[in-house]
């Protein structure tokens, strides 16, 4: 072996997981490698770019950012990038940019998979990095049916086990390491001016960026920290934290409130609470390549919902978990569409509306979605691409189990596949000229939430919508008039007014006469006060601080929404257990006297607050 090749093999033997391979295998590897030199600032990989090599950093360093520009990681000597591409048919997942002049060894994709197939320890290391399964810390799943209920009921603030450990940005690596050892923590927050978060340093950074690179302990901690770390809020749920860690492949999340760090949670905090079957389902969907296979996972949603309700979940928790699965299916279909048709010619964001947008889906959900395209969109140049993408995803969702919207409010419809400037025109017209069709559209498109793509495209549009609608009394009056067409099923003497005739004779429509009126009330109060939330619970919680509804009224409406929603879900669960297709039509005699009384009280709350809403914003005159 030449001196040059021996030097390369010696280098590989010093770095994990190559150090786990037999000597004869490592000694043969240098002949399979190609060396490339990259200048500082070079973008080596972009999302969906072809990548047919595992990249091993010999000298220098890289920065990894997701398609939205969020910093994910910094890598240095001995670390590898392009890993995800090895598990995605040679398609890169993120942006990789050189932080400094770097020498990189390239291992061909075939050689990588040969090693992974022959040596389990090699495969195990890279398989986790490649996203082919969830992180090993996320695998204690399905131990008990109420595990996901626990994490949907627990706030992030309840997971903070100790006071925050941080150090000033001016500290050295040695000072930071000593503090971590003294405090017995696996990560350290780097702060500026006492409370502003500048970055995060972990024990992995000490191993890979200090010890492995033989850095001086006197260097500033800023040389090895990850700046602007991904964070979460104290009022978010543990379930959200778990999904965030899984999505971004991190093990530590700073907890931020009002721009200040108040604590830190780790995968260990979540493991102590056990993990979730729903997260396993999401993980399976993200690895699938055929809608028909995803359909098998989504077919388990009724059983999942049944277990949640029987374990005592709230409708809010259940809706959040069920919607997470439709989000995962949508995102995966969009990834597959981009692999099939190539990278998008202009940026876009895929939006969910209706119950998916509000994160309030049940066992019975259709599609409500749209595409918002960058204003660089040209229909002649780009129209065919986005039509193909939208058809692929909407058709795929129908196959998966989310049937086509009867009103064709889908990205598959050309009207709902438009650039930002057209969407601005839509919302301007709907708000300024609120005719009946516009009011019907508002019930879906004012509940938009980004699912996949360049989310910043929606942000300016969303601000315009909230600003234009806030305090616009004419528009709000028309919205109130439309909302009052949804009558609660309660007569003058508090007797139930049931559906008459047809397939659903003598039933209560729990969706259109129960859930929808509250969703309408929450939306109007949110728009009137400039609240940007779309989830009904969040809208009503925010509305407690505004004059358009009393705090007691908002609180009563929250209780009514929960009772009606959970009664509807329990009805669907009974149907599922009986082998019937779930629907929204409830026979009152199936309820106990206690439940019937409380259901009437809930309908009374809605009726009273509908009247109060009409008085607050006046009549539309329609």
UniProtKB/TrEMBL annotation:
This is Cyclic nucleotide-binding protein. The keyword Ligase does not apply. PANTHER family: CBS DOMAIN AND CYCLIC NUCLEOTIDE-REGULATED NUCLEOTIDYLTRANSFERASE, CBS DOMAIN-CONTAINING PROTEIN CBSX2, CHLOROPLASTIC. Residues 17-118 form the Cyclic nucleotide-binding domain. Transmembrane segments: none annotated. CDD domains: CAP_ED, CBS_pair_CAP-ED_NT_Pol-beta-like_DUF294_assoc, NT_GlnE_GlnD_like. Residues 160-219, 225-282 form the CBS domain. Pfam families: CBS, cNMP_binding, DUF294, DUF294_C. InterPro entries: CBS_dom (IPR000644), CBS_dom_sf (IPR046342), CBS_domain-containing (IPR051462), cNMP-bd_dom (IPR000595), cNMP-bd_dom_sf (IPR018490), DUF294_put_nucleoTrafse_sb-bd (IPR018821), GlnD_Uridyltrans_N (IPR005105), RmlC-like_jellyroll (IPR014710). The keyword Coiled coil does not apply. It comes from Thalassospira permensis NBRC 106175. Keywords: CBS domain, Repeat.
